Each structure stands twice: as C-alpha cells, then as structure tokens.
Amino acid sequence: MTDSSVNNITITPESNPSFGRIWKISATQRLERPLEDVFPFFADAYNLEKLTPAFLNFKVLTPKPIQMSSGCEIKYTLKIHNIPIKWKTTILDWDPPHQFVDNQDSGPYSLWHHTHSFESINNGDATLCKDTVLYKPKGWILAPLINKYFVQRDVTNIFNYRFKKLEEIFPKVGSSSD
C-alpha cells in the first residue's frame, strides 16, 4: 500500500458458527511515523491505559514487566457504565512488528477477538494501524439491543479517543510537537 488518508471506524453484523450473530469492528488509522517507532508502543500492554478514556477507569492488573508473546495472559479492571468489570485476555498470536491477536478469556463480552495489524506505508515514513474486532455482547437474546443502544456507541467513542491520543503520541515528524 502506498498511501491512505484514513481514520475510519465501521461496525458491521457478521455470523459465527459458534456464537451466531456477532459484530465486526474495523478501525483503521494512519500514523505519520515509521513502523519501528509505532509498534514498540503497542508491544507494551501498559500503554493501553493511555489509549483508554479516563471514565472507564481502565487499569492493567498483571505485574510489570509483561513479556508479550503467544500465550501471554493479561488481566485488567475497568468500569463500564459505572459497573466494575474484570477482564482477562490471552495473546493468541504474537508476530512483531506486523500483528498480534488477543482474545477475551473472561470479561464483559461473550466474544471479543481482537487482531491488531501494522503496515509500513509511504516508503516507510508512515504506519497504517488496523484493528479488527469480532465481538458479541453478553445478554443472550438481548445482545442485539445491548449492542445497538450501548456497545456500538461505546466502542466507537473509545476508538475515536484512541485515534486522538495516538495522533498526540505520534505527531508527524517535523511538526511543532516534535
């Protein structure tokens, strides 16, 4: 890929043999920094706290340092609509600096499978960050309504916040923020 001017989030319905009706989040962001600058930030699980809005009270519970690798388990706590939640994920695939995949073992969803992909673009001067999340809210028969009235709005707001924070953390080389 040579160019892309994206900060885009879409949520679409999908189907899964094990989970039935699910949803897919596709979020893409272009950062005007090389892949070798961007990926190490994502390789530190504690940086997720910086990318999460304060109202979620998101905290990583797993002690530092977290050695990211396939099979690594990470525990968190957060509040969703002021309800305290414990969340545990496992890194299923660790392929630096191109991709990693985490999967919820326990937490607020029936399904949360998150693929983080990174692609060097613009002759190595920029990075295209892609997030693909397959998810299903808990709630059995009410899951579609819970998704429509709460989850879709919440995850869109969280990704928009993340886009803004990443642009602050990784300003374009040569900008006044450098």
Quickly count the domains: 1
**Total DSSP helices:** 2
Q: The CATH topology, please?
A: Alpha-D-Glucose-1,6-Bisphosphate, Chain A, domain 4
CATH superfamily: START domain
Helix content: 10-25%
Give me the CATH architecture, please.
Answer: 2-Layer Sandwich
Helix and strand topology:
Blueprint: E1 7-16, E2 20-31, H1 35-42, E3 59-60, E4 73-80, E5 83-95, E6 99-106, E7 109-121, E8 126-137, H2 143-169
Antiparallel strand pairs: 1-2, 2-8, 3-4, 4-5, 5-6, 6-7, 7-8
How would you sum up this structure, described in words?
The chain has 178 residues and is α+β, with helices and mostly antiparallel strands. 20% of the residues lie in helices and 44% in strands. It contains two helices and eight strands. The protein has an eight-stranded antiparallel β-sheet. It starts with 6 loop residues before the first strand and ends in a 9-residue tail after the last helix.
